Amino acid sequence: MKTIKYVYALMTLVLFLALGCEKDNFDAPTSMLTGRVVYDGQPLGLRSGGVQLELWQHGYDLFSKIPVHVDQDGTFSARLFDGDYKLVLLRGNGPWADNTDSIDVHLRGTASLDVPVDPYFVITGESFQRDGDQIRATFTLRQVNPSRALERVAIYLGQTLIVDQNNNAARAEIVSADIADIGQPLTLSVTIPASLVSKGYLFARLGVKANGVAEYLYTQVQRINL
User: Whole-angstrom Cα distance, residue 44 to residue 38?
Assistant: First the structure.
């Protein structure tokens, strides 16, 4: 009787190992989807790791989302199996108006697409200059979607390319009450920390935030030599 139990146990172990090997031998996805989150044909600056897209694929027993994280320069990429997918924006997950429309993605080897969004505000014509112990930014705000009011605009300095409201060495801001006229040129200055002066360079960008929205919309990061 014990011998039979041992035989059954051995057979179960062999079957388990065989199934495990079969699972491990599945091919990894090799096709590549790339894209950009854009407004007016240009990629938007975002917080690193702050915005996520979702891919969904019908026709399989397990129907679940594939998260796609957007980089701070507005680009994204995902390695997938060939197939047909639906790409959607998460509600309330970006500095733009919600859009429930999905985008059809037909992936055969490689595919690239732009994901258009409707931001509440954008920053245009930005430039950065050193002015003594400060960095001064000159820029213009433009309201694109009027459904939300302006909350604030900020300037950020950092010692690496990753610069945003959570990753910075110095920041300064203007609240909406101190902005007389959206659409007119504005300036915003911030003191350069000693730690950045000693490096001889820094990275800077601007961000604008609408009321009731968690994420800022940013300019692209610029390197400034000191």
Answer: 6
62 band by pLDDT with thresholds 50, 70 and 90? low
Sign of CA dihedral 95, 96, 101, 102: negative
Helix extents (H) in the chain: 2-24, 194-197
The Cα-based distances of 150 to 111, 142, 145, 181, 212 in angstroms read 36, 10, 11, 11, 10
The candidate with the shortest Cα–Cα distance to 156, out of 210, 93, 202, 211, is 202
Amino acid residing at 50: G
Q: If you average pLDDT over residues 77-100, what whole number do you get?
A: 93
Contact 102, 81 (CB under 8 A): no
Reduce the DSSP state of residue 13 to 3 states and report it: helix
Pairing of strands 217-218, 222-225: unpaired
Distance between CA 109 and CA 83 in Å, rounded?
9
* Sign of CA pseudo-dihedral 8, 12, 13, 17: positive
Taking a C-beta distance cutoff of 8 angstroms, is the pair 69, 49 a contact?
A: yes
How many whole angstroms separate alpha carbon 197 and alpha carbon 191? 10
- The predicted model scores a pTM of 0.84
* pLDDT one-digit tens code per residue, 132-150: 999 999 999 999 999 999 9
What's the CA gap between 145 and 19, in Å, rounded? 54
192-to-102, 143, 161, 164, 226 alpha-carbon distances in Å: 44, 29, 16, 16, 10
